[in-house]
User: Which sequence fits this backbone?
C-alpha cells in the first residue's frame, strides 16, 4: 500500500514501524506541511475485520498475517515451556490486537525515571502528554485529557459476577476507585478501554488515518526493515524488503531515522545494523558501527498467573453467552449499537492492590472476567460456566534479553524474559496468588461459585503455588526495556533523555523499548505518551506548549 509521496525516495524523517508510537509520530510530524515523512510498516494494512471488533482479539492474536508470533526461550521458571508473546504486525501494531485497556500507572513510576537521570520525565513533565493523547469520555478530573485521539470509555456491559466480585473486594477493605488513571491507582473497579461505539480504536485509526490525506506522509506497508544505513556515525536511511529473498529497497532520511518497531524488533534491527554489544555482533558477523552494550538487554515483561472457578448454573457466564442463540442475540445488540460482549475488553474488572500488608502503594495488578478459558488452550472458552481472576507484579525485577540469531530479519530473535528468576518476583507473585484466592472466596461471590478448578483446592503451600505458576503462568504482552533510556554515564543505557541513541547522530528510538523500568500498568498508554513527548522534542516545541495544547 502506498499513498501520495514525493518523487525522490528521500524524506526529512523515516519512521520504522506504524504501531502505537509510529502512528502518533507520523501524525504530529506531518502537522508541519514543510516536513516530509516516510513510514515503513512490516505488516499489512489493518483491513482484517476482526481488528475492529473488540472481541475479535481472540482471532487476531493467533493470526500470523497480522502478528509477530514470537515465543520466549524455555526456562525452569516456565516449566520448560516456550511462551507465545505475540505482538501486532499491522497498522496500529499491538494497539490493533491488544486488550484495549487504558492504564497510565502510578505517578511514582515516572518520578523514578527522572531520578535515574532522565531529565524531563517526571510525572509532572509527562502528564500533559498523557492528556494530549487521550479523549476521556466519562468521569475524570483535570488530570484527564478531553480532546486527544484515543477515546477512553467506561465498561458498559456489566455482569452480575463482576458486581459480586467488586463487592467482595470492597468487603476485604479494598476501596472502590472510579478513576484509577487520576493519579491515585489503588482500588477496584471497571477498566477503561479504547473502545467507542462498539469498535476498537487503535492508534492507527486515531492518529494515522487522519494524517494519511496529507501529501507529506508516505506510508509503505509490507515493508520489513532489514538494515539501517549509515555514513560514519550518522543514520541516513533504511533498507527494507517486501518479501523474503526479494529485492532490497532503500529510503533516505535527511534529518533522522526513528525506530518505533517495538521492544523486540527495535533491538534486533539495531543489532543486525551494527549497533549493540560487540560480542553479539561478532557472532552475527556484523561489522561494528558503534558498540552499545545495552541494546537488547534490560528486557522485562509482566508474568501472570490466573485462577479459575466453576460457577453455579443460573447466571450465564461468557462461556455460555458466546455460543448458540445467546451469541446471536449479542451480535444483534452489537449491530444496534447496544452493550454487547462483542464490544468488551478481555479483562473487565481491575484491582490494584498490595501483595503484603504494610506497603505504601500497590505492587500488584489483578484482573477479573466473568468467563474462563480451557487449561492449555489459550482463549478457548470452557464448556462449563466459569470465572477467572489473575494477578501480576507491577514492577518485576527479573530481566532478560532480546538477541538476533542471524542477520535474516525473517528469523525470529532469541527472546528470554527470565520470568520469576529474581527472588522478589517470586515473593510478590505468591502474595498476588493468595490475594486472588481471597478475592474469589468472599461471601459476596460465594452464591455464584461451585468450586475452584484451577489450580484446585489441593494446591496450598508456597512450593505448590509456585509450581503451578511455573507450569501455567503466562505473559501479559507488556514488553519493554531493550533500548533503555539513561544518561551517557550509564554504560548500559541505549538512548539519552531526548531518545537519541548514544554515540550516534540522526538516530532516535521512540517506543516501549526505551522505558528504563516497568510502569505499574499495561504499557500502551505510556507508549502513546512517549511518542507525544518525543514529537515535541523532534519539532523543537517547548514543554510549556504541550501544556497549552493538552
Assistant:
Amino acid at each position: 500500500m502506498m499513498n501520495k509521496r514525493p518523487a525522490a525516495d528521500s524524506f526529512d524523517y523515516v519512521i520504522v514501524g506504524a504501531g502505537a508510537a509510529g502512528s502518533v509520530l507520523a501524525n504530529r510530524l506531518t502537522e508541519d506541511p514543510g516536513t516530509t515523512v516516510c513510514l515503513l510498516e512490516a505488516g499489512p494494512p489493518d483491513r482484517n475485520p476482526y481488528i475492529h471488533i473488540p472481541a475479535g482479539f481472540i482471532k487476531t492474536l493467533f493470526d500470523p498475517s497480522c502478528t509477530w508470533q514470537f515465543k520466549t526461550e524455555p526456562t525452569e521458571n516456565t516449566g520448560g515451556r516456550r511462551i507465545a508473546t505475540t505482538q501486532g504486525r499491522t497498522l496500529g501494531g499491538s494497539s490493533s490486537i491488544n486488550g484495549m485497556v487504558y492504564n497510565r500507572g502510578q505517578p511514582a513510576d515516572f518520578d523514578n525515571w527522572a531520578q535515574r537521570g532522565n531529565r524531563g520525565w517526571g510525572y509532572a513533565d509527562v502528564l500533559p502528554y498523557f492528556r494530549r493523547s487521550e479523549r476521556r469520555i466519562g468521569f475524570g478530573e483535570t488530570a484527564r485529557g478531553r480532546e486527544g485521539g484515543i477515546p477512553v470509555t467506561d465498561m458498559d456491559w456489566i455482569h452480575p459476577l463482576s458486581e459480586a466480585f467488586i463487592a467482595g473486594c470492597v468487603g476485604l477493605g479494598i476501596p472502590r476507585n472510579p478513576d484509577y488513571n487520576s493519579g491515585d491507582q489503588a482500588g477496584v473497579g471497571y477498566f477503561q478501554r479504547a473502545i467507542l461505539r462498539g469498535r476498537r480504536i487503535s492508534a492507527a485509526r486515531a492518529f494515522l488515518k487522519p494524517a494519511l490525506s496529507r501529501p507529506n506522509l508516505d506510508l509503505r506497508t509490507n515493508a520489513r526493515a532489514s538494515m539501517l544505513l549509515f555514513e560514519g556515525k550518522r543514520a541516513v536511511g533504511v533498507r527494507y524488503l517486501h518479501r523474503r529473498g526479494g529485492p532490497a529497497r532503500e529510503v533516505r532520511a535527511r534529518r533522522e531515522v526513528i525506530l518505533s518497531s517495538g521492544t523486540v524488533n527495535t533491538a534486533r534491527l539495531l543489532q543486525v545494523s551494527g549497533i549493540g554489544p560487540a560480542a553479539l555482533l561478532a557472532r552475527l558477523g556484523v561489522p561494528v558501527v558503534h558498540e552499545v552494550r545495552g541494546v537488547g538487554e534490560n528486557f522485562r515483561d509482566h508474568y501472570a498467573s490466573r485462577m479459575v472457578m466453576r460457577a453455579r448454573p443460573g447466571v450465564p457466564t461468557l462461556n455460555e453467552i458466546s455460543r448458540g442463540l445467546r451469541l446471536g442475540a449479542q451480535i444483534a445488540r452489537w449491530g444496534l449499537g447496544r452493550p454487547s460482549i462483542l464490544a468488551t475488553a478481555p479483562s473487565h474488572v481491575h484491582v490494584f492492590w498490595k501483595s503484603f500488608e504494610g506497603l505504601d502503594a500497590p505492587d500488584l495488578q489483578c484482573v477479573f472476567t466473568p468467563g474462563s478459558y480451557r487449561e492449555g488452550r489459550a482463549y478457548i472458552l470452557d464448556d462449563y460456566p466459569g470465572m477467572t481472576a489473575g494477578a501480576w507484579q507491577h514492577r518485576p525485577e527479573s530481566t532478560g534479553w532480546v538477541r538476533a540469531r542471524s542477520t535474516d530479519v525473517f528469523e525470529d530473535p532469541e527472546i528470554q524474559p527470565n520470568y520469576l528468576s529474581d527472588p522478589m518476583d517470586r515473593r510478590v507473585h505468591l502474595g498476588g496468588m493468595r490475594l486472588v484466592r481471597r478475592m474469589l472466596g468472599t461471601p459476596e461471590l460465594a452464591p455464584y461459585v461451585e468450586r475452584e478448578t484451577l489450580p484446585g483446592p489441593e494446591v496450598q503451600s508456597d512450593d505448590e503455588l509456585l509450581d503451578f505458576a511455573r507450569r501455567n503462568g503466562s505473559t501479559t504482552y507488556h514488553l519493554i526495556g531493550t533500548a533503555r533510556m539513561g544518561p551517557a554515564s550509564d554504560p548500559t543505557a541505549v538512548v539519552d533523555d531526548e531518545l537519541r541513541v548514544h554515540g550516534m547522530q540522526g538516530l532516535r528510538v521512540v517506543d516501549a523499548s526505551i522505558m528504563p523500568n516497568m510502569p505499574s500498568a499495561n504499557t500502551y498508554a505510556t507508549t502513546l505518551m512517549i511518542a507525544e513527548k518525543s514529537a515535541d522534542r523532534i519539532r523543537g516545541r517547548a514543554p510549556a506548549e504541550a501544556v497549552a495544547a493538552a
Q: What stands out?
A: The domain at 156-190+302-475 is CATH 3.30.410.40 (Cholesterol Oxidase; domain 2). Residues 1-7 have pLDDT under 50 and may be disordered.
